[in-house]
Amino acid sequence: MSKLHLRQATSDDLNALLQLEQRCFTEDRLSRRSFRRFIEMPRDRLIVAETTHEGASELLGYCLVLMSAATRLARIYSIAVLPTARGHGIGEQLIKTAEHEAASAGRILMRLEVREDNSGAITLYKRLGYRQFGTYRDYYEDHGTALRFERRILFYEPSREFLPVPYYPQTTDFSCGPAALIMAMAALDEEQPLTTLEELRIWREATTIFMLAGHGGCGPHGLALSAWKRGFEASAWVSTEGPLFQDTVRNNDKKRVLELVHEGFLKDISQTGIRLHHAPLTLEAMEQALHNGQIPVILISTWQLNRSRVPHWVTVCAIDEQFVYLHDPDIDVDDGETVADKQYLPVDKRVFSRISRYGRNQPLQAAVIVGPKR
């Protein structure tokens, strides 16, 4: 095969695109009007693959990528390769080029739909790192089912501006706070243990005893004390002065236990150099802490991310003009997630302002900033 050239489509490609559509699909075909609209839409990308032989060009495939103005998502709306040109990696090159274009436009995830009986395409997508996250019934004109796939395409490039933060996944459902704190401390001290034993020790020190159902989670006071106990500078930022998470338990005896735990934390903090601020930690202060060689650990609501109302601790690793980059210690293996999915996870700053608070009425904002060893 002659050398392949990938480029943005122009209106001169319309006839060739229509011919390719006719040869590749029997249903759900794009019209000339649709192709023209996508070519003229500056936000979207229509990438074509062509070869030139003896001065004549031939269009072998295309990939149409839609990019929403309201989100950081991109979507492969349609992809096609001539039947006679398949088996030469053209589809893979189109996908990789589409991912590069979308990532350059600040998109975090690439999504796509594929017929459930298209085993060749499904195999390719999985090999390229896509994972299934949903299903559309009655999606195609013939009432066929589509499988939904996605892959993270935007990754943080390490910078000398900020300390590198090692990644450590939580090993229980209730120890996100200790795991997030371990990552922060490990960024500041290479001898910091990254072990399940250390994770559980911190949980025992910092737990609120009760929260929702099951084991209690950790609050900012306890996490700050755990960091201080291990020799690190620490400060805590909490938007409320009273006991935390009381609205997650209904039993009055349990509420009283939460009050006693809170009183104990405050007494212990008073005997340390921990700075306790009863105010939210601003994004500007968070970025300044990173520049000062400190690592913020923050409480978020995962409702914006996965529709869960559980409070969750993450580690802030870097901030740039568009994103806040997080280490999320929670890996959902059953959902196909890997360590790579949760390291330097980019969150749009506008979204971050919504997730960095927990609860509906008077939402809680909490953070711990871990500094170098004393």
Write the layout of secondary structure elements.
Blueprint: E1 4-8, H1 14-24, H2 32-40, E2 45-53, E3 56-67, E4 73-81, H3 90-104, E5 109-115, H4 119-127, E6 131-136, E7 146-152, H5 176-188, H6 196-206, H7 220-229, E8 232-238, H8 252-270, E9 275-277, H9 283-291, E10 295-301, H10 303-306, E11 311-319, E12 323-327, H11 339-342, E13 345-348, H12 349-355, E14 366-373
Overview of the structural elements:
- The protein is an alpha+beta fold and 374 residues long.
- It folds into 2 domains: 4-152, Gcn5-related N-acetyltransferase (GNAT) (Aminopeptidase), CATH 3.40.630; 176-373, Cysteine proteinases (Cathepsin B, Chain A, Alpha-Beta Complex).
- Helix content is 32%, strand content 26%.
- The protein has helices spanning 14-24, 32-40, 90-104, 119-127, 176-188, 196-206, 220-229, 252-270, 283-291, 303-306, 339-342, 349-355; strands at 4-8, 45-53, 56-67, 73-81, 109-115, 131-136, 146-152, 232-238, 275-277, 295-301, 311-319, 323-327, 345-348, 366-373.
- The strands form 2 sheets. Strands 1-2-3-4-5-7-6 form a 7-stranded mixed sheet, sandwiched between helices. A 7-stranded mixed sheet has the order 9-8-14-10-11-12-13, sandwiched between helices.
- Helix 8 links the parallel strand 8 (232-238) and strand 9 (275-277).
- The longest helix is centred in the C-terminal third of the chain and has 19 residues, at 252-270.
- The chain is elongated, with a radius of gyration of 25 Å.
